[in-house]
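Annotators were shown the component list below and the corresponding predicted structure, then asked to write short factual statements about the assembly.
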Amino acid sequence: MVTRRDFVKSCAVASGAAVVGLRPGAAAAADGPKKGGTLRVGFYIEAATMDPHLSGSKVDRQVYHNIYEPLVTLDTRLGIKPGLAESWSQPDPKTLVFKLRRGVKFHDGTDFNAEAAKFNFDRMKTEPKSIRKGEVANIDTVEVVDAATLKVNLKKADASLLATLTDRAGMMISPKVVQERGVELGRNARGAGTGPFEFVEWVKDDHLLIKRNESYWNKQGGPYLERVRYRPIPDDTVKLQSLQGGEIDVIDYVQPRDVAAVKTDKNVMVVDVPSLADFAYQLNHGRPPFNVKALRQAVAYAIDLEQIVKGVWLNVGYPANGPIPPTSWAYDKAIPPIKRDLAKVKARLAEGGKPGGFEFTMTTNNIPLSVQEAEVIQAQLREAGITMKIRLVDASTLISDGNAKNFEMISFQWSGRPDPDGNVYQFFKTTPGTSFNWSGISHPQLDALLDRSREVSAQAERKKIFSEVTKILQDELPMIFIVHPIEPKAFSQRVQGYEAIPDGMMRFKDVWLK
Amino acid sequence: MAEVVLRRLLATVPVLLLVTAGVFALLHLTPGDPVDAMMAESADASTKESLRRELGLDRPIAVQYAAWMGRLLRGDLGRSIRNGEPVLENVSRRIRPSLQLALLAMAIALTIAFPVAIASAVRHNTGVDRLGTTFALFGICMPNFLLALLLIFVFGVTLRWLPISGYLDPLEEGWSGLRSLILPAVTLGLALAAVITRTLRSSLLEALAEDYVRTARAKGLSEWVVIRGHVLKNALIPVVTVLGLQLGTLIGGAVITEYVFALPGVGRLVVDAVFARDYPLVQGVILLIALGFIVSNLLVDLLYGYIDPRIRLR
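Structure shown to annotators:
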């Protein structure tokens, strides 16, 4: 049971299209926001560390986005907007210059400036336990031009770097706190951030408390809430009941099976947040049977995505045409998801030398939703004469098997990234050694397109490239894409002013309580 | 007596060694890797490699075990891989709710089981007995998670008498702490009550058929005196055995109950640690749970001698 939330969340947390009709706050706009109150938030698991540079756990980010701030941040349509940097420019493809906001102070009273920003980038690159190294690997050096100007020199052009800096890799920690507190920062982030809320205390296994930053630099809107209190509640049903019973005000996720019932509860408000995620299966190109393209296609044509999204996901998601979700500017709705076609299955089986069908094993998570999905696929394939065995494993085993290419077909649930690059490049680019290219696809034309997608910066042109990529993926099938899940969040009726940002992070700056 | 205890405690050393070696081997044989689990969303192989080196995970298993043992002998259980917290600190925080829950559940179980079992045995094969055995059957068959959710629905969501989830320490928060433990303790207590009821009922029936009971009755003793003075004490041995085994299970194995009620106990800790492949944490918790089992079994053995002088330990 424990892996279920861990994995689905660790992989699925991202996401969320901003403006969905049901936005809390829309109804009560007449009253206007008021200050005060404690917002009680229930998450499936507690944070692992308060140090963004050492954080590997996705839930940490939910807290970070209220106490720390990144250089740039996301708007409701996945565009990049100013954060701690008020503007930026790109004199050449390998240089980024940030103009930093003046007068911003960390919660410990020290100044945020270019020196502090440089300190943070250097720490991400050199700290032995840094988990950000990969994200900032393409940053060659960082220079302080003056107190409010930071120059970032890249090793090569990278159109997706700004989007990466909207999260942990762009978050600024007080250098004084880092130097004085050392490893203790992991559990005590007092004074460390610049955000609308300040860290107060973290009683492990019980709660994490943050309070309003009275001297927050941005005087527009909130923070209104006096405090936000995070509590871990691992069981989904109980978490939902805690919301319905009035013990908490916000939950991070509602299971598809509960969505319909919760929407009829008058005390609770559900916000459907379409995600950045893509849930798929990787096919191993390095060993039989899926080293044969025709057999990969046979499986893809045998699967009925509509039926899976309707029957297993209860329509809390969209059938996928590829790795890029409908929330993204790069999504091409002219490319339909692969349709079931048993005649084509027959032809491909014959072409692949297995006219009588074949047998293979799927490796997937031992969590109810994944098991149901696997069973439906198993039945669909059986109708097409293909026998699929199901091997159930826990999340850690799944990742190890994937990295070791020890699978024929394996579940891959990716939470998604704001820039389409994060859903595409690392999965399909030819990479020797360990990478997320578990399928082992190596396709020169695809490689060239992927590299170009990083070099060009015009969005329209990048979109065209990603459309071409999607078409190649539908033909080559390193993955069979199933669904872009919706990630529903639920609130008590007291909660007002929440704006869903499509990365799924819950920023409480402008939230208030009725 | 002191010598017996000492001898028994010494005999636990090889048991603990075996447990730690077994757990260590099993953990490392299980596919999966702590760094992969921690960095599930990163494909950055070089960062992972350097993190593995930093954590000493690149060394041979035997070396890692020896290093762990060496630290253990100095009283250091190491630090969690996932969040760097000292294992001992983590476990000692988690053992409090687990112990409180176990003791409360046991108290509830005994309060229910004794009257029901005695009534069943004394009124053997009557309606009372059938009611008692039906209760026991129900308690044994009812899955924990279902009972927990039913209790939450009735007392938490509908009636709103008790908190739905979460934990407050009764030793610090008093009544509200106790309230947070009632539903989980009842969940565990009912199942345990069922087991004790069945055990006690059958051993009572056995004792009731003994000659000394007939003699006692023939002496004109009242039925209650016969039961309390002669039957009950002789029927206690199997019950104490069950209790001793269950105490260990309740402390380390109440995973589902802890999970459902969001109680930060030892059971959930070990399961989460296994899924994260947090080797030092799993090792540390299992060691302490094994120690708990050994101590509770020792207590049971000592209690035998008290209840029945014929089986005094030598």
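Statements collected:
1. Residues 87-122 of chain B form the longest helix (36 residues).
2. Chain B has a mean pLDDT of 86.
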